[in-house]
Specification:
The chain is globular. A four-stranded antiparallel β-sheet has the order 1-2-3-4, with no helix packed on it. The protein has a four-stranded antiparallel β-sheet with strand order 5-6-7-8, with no helix packed on it. The chain has a four-stranded antiparallel β-sheet with strand order 15-14-17-18, with no helix packed on it. It is an all-beta fold. Strand 5 and strand 6 (56-59) form a beta hairpin. It folds into two domains: 3-116, Neuraminidase (6 Propeller), CATH 2.120.10.30; 128-203, Macroglobulin (MG2) domain (Immunoglobulin-like, Sandwich), CATH 2.60.40. The chain contains no helices and 18 strands.
């Protein structure tokens, strides 16, 4: 277990790094657990903080977006990129709507005002894609920032054949069930505005 949060006296939330999800416990007299949120896209969860409406901020090891916000449908709905917070380990929220984040690499604590409605860094972000490993074997998680909610992802092989496609909400897991052979693939994410980014991948 790597994270702990609570939003009232009867609910306790605990994150599991190995299972990549948060569980909810009822207190007092804890006897069981309920799977609350699964962090799609390989979030590599560290600490967590729960919002008043039940969404969860999770600190991750992903360099491109160390903080991600998930809703109870397991969808990432917001993130704070490395340009704002380079590293995140501990995270909590106070009653005034501030998110507090510890950065053990730079020996800092960040105070982020969420009442202003952060989306990314609050600036225009150039769309950027990153792979959890490249080359990869088995599966790879593709993450990105700067893409709108109408974005789609398409995966092509070296011959230009479409392998898979789906909506893109900041992360996408490719592999295993896609029956990929060894070789080069290209992940293309296209925004609703028409702009797109392409990431070259190597499957071993």
């Amino acid at each position: 277990m790597t994270g702990l949060a609570a939003n009232n006296a009867t609910r306790l939330y605990v994150s599991s790094r190995t299972q990549n999800r948060t569980y909810r416990y009822t207190a007092p007299g804890i006897t069981g657990r309920i799977s609350y949120i699964y962090y799609s896209g390989g979030s590599q969860t560290r600490d967590i903080a729960i919002t008043t409406n039940g969404n969860i901020w999770v600190a991750t090891d992903l360099a491109v977006m160390p903080l991600r916000l998930y809703n109870t449908s397991n969808v990432m709905i917001d993130n704070i990129p490395a340009g704002l917070v380079p590293y995140a380990r501990g995270v909590t929220m106070d009653e005034s709507g501030y998110l507090w984040v510890s950065d053990i690499v730079n020996d800092k604590i960040y105070k982020i005002d969420l009442t202003e409605g952060i989306e990314g860094s609050g600036e225009n972000i150039t769309p950027c894609l990153q792979a959890s490993s490249n080359p990869f074997a088995g599966q790879v998680t593709i993450t990105g920032i700067g893409f709108d909610s109408q974005s789609t992802i398409s995966i092509y092989d070296i011959r230009g054949n479409l392998v898979s496609s789906d909506s893109f909400f900041g992360s996408y897991v490719l592999g295993d069930s896609d029956d990929l052979s060894q070789g080069v693939y290209f992940a293309r994410v296209r925004c609703g505005s028409g702009s797109e980014s392409v990431l070259k991948l190597m499957c071993l």
